[in-house]
Design brief:
Elements lengths: L7 E4 L5 E4 L2 E5 L4 H11 L5 E2 H9 L7 H18 L8 E4 L2 E4 L5 E3 H13 L4 H14 L12 H28 L2 H14 L6 H11 L2 H19 L5 H14 L1 H14 L9 E2 L2 H18 L4 E9 L11 H14 L6 E6 L2 E6 L4 H16 L5 E9 L4
Helix pairs in contact: 4-5, 5-6, 6-7, 7-8, 8-9, 8-10, 9-10, 10-11, 13-14
């Protein structure tokens, strides 16, 4: 939109700036002159009281005569504005104990335009008018109110108030667009919100839109980039809804992921016991051992190999008998039920079992052996169990 002549255009969102007839008079700054001008321009409708001006302009200074200091500051402001090319007038008007910006110089302010658009959207007679109003208001919000003046109580309060308005606009508009399945508009809304208000989890709206559009690769890339930025800048993950959306992308919507899920279900097996160690054949045990040995070498994690042998109480090994298999089955169950799901067990002899104990220590190993013995002795008190252990990283 083309700017009008002889109108002061003031920007508070993102950064402070003042333009007059296409010329930038002020870009940023942090001085008493800037603070006074900001307050006068922003409170031009209702005015600023003396207490606010004193607190904002002199709170960190020891001033003996505040009234005199304010007169000097007002005089300097008027002089500087005139030198900048503004029409000559009494820029500060005092009325009823409050200070106002001179009505002779009209002002168009981004924060005021945003608030007016927000109020108009709330009062919209139809859902479509409300939606268009919220979308328009979102476009007018250009970032935090005076972000470089967060130490000012007045500026911080206004910044919070406008953030709340913006959040309400985005959430209301997003809900309407999602319900109507207008995903392209929802995507634009989410991207704009994440741009002007970073690290507020607005990426979730763009994710909702991309999932609705079936653009799963883009959605996954968006999540990964957001996750990286949130972790690097804040040390946190994106919010729970974003994580849920990412999981829904990988679990339900990608053909390759469906295939992977099927493979995992097949490999895991439907009949795996809920408790106890993983029981497998020797060939599988050997493969797991080789992989675990490599991981141990790389990570330094404590992993142990244990041999469990069942003997007669007198130390004589068992001979073949019809009851040996039943005895082995009870021994096997005692071992498996005494271990964790992360441990691996295989039979390597008539009454011998190998065990891979993951992420454990020799002290814990002693406790595990005691559990196995106690579990087995409940049924077979006339037998001894011999245990032999070694660490996987031992050469």
């Amino acid at each position: 939109m083309q700017e009008k002549n002889n109108v002061l255009y003031v920007r508070f969102f993102g950064a402070f700036s003042v333009r007059w007839n296409g010329v930038h008079l002020i870009n940023g700054g942090d001085s008493q002159f800037i603070h006074l001008l900001q307050i006068l321009l922003h409170t031009r409708e209702n005015g600023a009281d003396r207490a606010l001006l004193i607190d904002e302009l002199f709170h960190d200074r020891e001033i003996k005569d505040v009234t005199h200091s304010m007169r000097v500051l007002f005089y300097n402001l008027k002089k500087r504005l005139k030198d900048m090319g503004l029409p000559s007038c009494d820029y500060i008007v005092k009325r009823g104990g409050r200070f106002y910006w001179a009505p002779e110089i009209p002002v168009i302010e981004d924060a005021a335009d945003f608030e007016a658009a927000y109020q108009k959207a709330n009062a919209g007679p139809t859902l479509e008018e409300k939606l268009n109003g919220y979308l328009n208001a979102c476009e007018l919000y250009g970032g935090d109110f005076l972000p470089l003046h967060a130490g000012s109580l007045w500026a911080a309060q206004e910044a919070r108030r406008y953030r709340d308005m913006f959040s309400d606009c985005v959430n209301r508009a997003a809900a309407m667009l999602l319900k109507a399945k207008r995903y392209e508009q929802l995507l634009a809304l989410g991207r704009n919100a994440a741009r002007v208000q970073p690290f507020s989890n607005w990426e979730r709206i763009a994710l909702e839109a991309l999932v609705g559009l079936g653009r799963y690769t883009e959605a996954d890339n968006l999540y990964c980039e957001a996750e990286r930025q949130y972790f690097e800048e804040l040390g946190v993950r994106p919010d729970e809804r974003m994580v849920e959306l990412r999981e829904s992308i990988t679990t339900f919507n990608c053909p390759g992921q469906k295939m992977l899920d099927a493979v995992q279900e097949h490999l895991t097996g439907k009949h795996e016991p809920e408790n106890g160690a993983y029981l497998c054949g020797y060939a599988v045990f050997e493969s797991i051992f080789l992989v675990l040995a490599r991981l141990t070498e790389r990570s330094g994690q404590g992993n142990l190999l244990m041999l469990c042998t069942l003997e007669e109480a007198d130390g004589i090994a068992h001979e073949e008998s019809a009851l040996q298999e039943a005895l082995a089955a009870r021994f096997e169950r005692a071992i498996c039920m005494s271990l964790r799901k992360t441990d691996i067990v295989c039979r390597c002899g008539k009454l011998q079992y190998l065990v891979l104990l993951t992420n454990t220590t020799q002290e814990c190993c002693a406790a595990i052996q005691a559990r196995i013995s106690a579990q087995f002795d409940q049924q077979e008190p006339k037998h001894d169990i011999r245990y032999y252990t070694r660490a996987l990283d031992r050469k």
